[in-house]
Structure prediction request, 327 residues.
Amino acid sequence: MRIYSGIQPTGCITIGNYIGAVKNWLELQEENECLFAIANQHAMTVRQVPQELRERTYSFFAQFLACGLDPEKSILYVQSNVPQHSELAWILSCTTYIGELERMTQFKDKSRKNEDNINAGLLTYPVLMAADILLFKTDLVPVGKDQKQHLELTRDLAIRFNNRYGDTFVVPEPYIPKQGAKITSLQNPLEKMSKSDKDQNATVSIIDSADVIMKKFKRAVTDSENRIAFSEEKPGISNLLTIYSAFSGESIESAERRFEGKGYGDFKIAVGETVADALSPVREKYAAYMADKAELERIMKEGAEKASRIASRTIAKVKKKIGFVSD
Ligand code: TYM
Prediction:
């Protein structure tokens, strides 16, 4: 199967991104044809400092590699290095209704948070995301729950285009994990853990040091019941159990039994240690990749060339279908 997914280089890659998306990418790359992109064109929908965006793009790419995404198995690249993304986005935007875009919860959310910069890109962002996916004849898109609505739009656009112009795009399926599709903030367990959260204690980065990870988990907001059980009424503890299970491989039920009778303090330390241990090799490899920018650039270039080769075939087909004269 062809797999496609991406991540915006904003803030830092959190354990939410890791559990909801990257962890599944690692499994999927073993048996499938995968493409994973740093979606830097998406990041432009909020204001960026150019030098920081550039640095973060290298950093995210190094984190991809440090996590175990393997350029021998998957195509890893930076979105802006493959111009076909923008080309298809324009064509698809003429197949998209404004009402569909205005309904997107992420658009409404981000408009509220960036009142002084509600740019057109913020509105049309899901069209670019649809272009990302449809360019590569993607079968499956592994993402967290927050991307579900964008995936539904992608499917609608593919179907609409196919109906209007004849069979062109593969209609992709979302792949959303049953457990961990929405990891929540450590400071507000009712809200999604977000890369761009200003509160440092709310998120854990996959390259945080063990000390920092321990501190953040010790400060995690829970309830006052002191009973380690997964339930809707206990979002903080349920979130910690989900994180613990994702990094230890132990099921939530088994963890509940093992921590029965223990207090929240002990449990938070156990979660912190498990996460810190699991991420320590990632942090080490990350430092090594960041020390060799030339190698990062080589892998980026190779990935972009491979992606571009596939994308250009789709673009040629699309242009023919819509009546553009051939170049
Ligand atoms: P982004 O950069 O916000 O997030 C990257 C991936 O992480 C998932 N995710 C989470 N999963 C669980 N819990 C959380 N708290 C959490 N926060 C984020 C997201 O669902 C996502 O899978 N538009 C996308 C990037 C993108 C893309 C694409 C994805 C661009 N083009 C094409 C798939 C296909 C985004 O902003 O993800």
Notes: The chain has two domains: 2-175+293-322, 210-287. Residues 293-322 form the longest helix (30 residues). Residues 2-175+293-322 form a domain with the Rossmann fold fold (CATH 3.40.50.620). The chain has a mean pLDDT of 97.
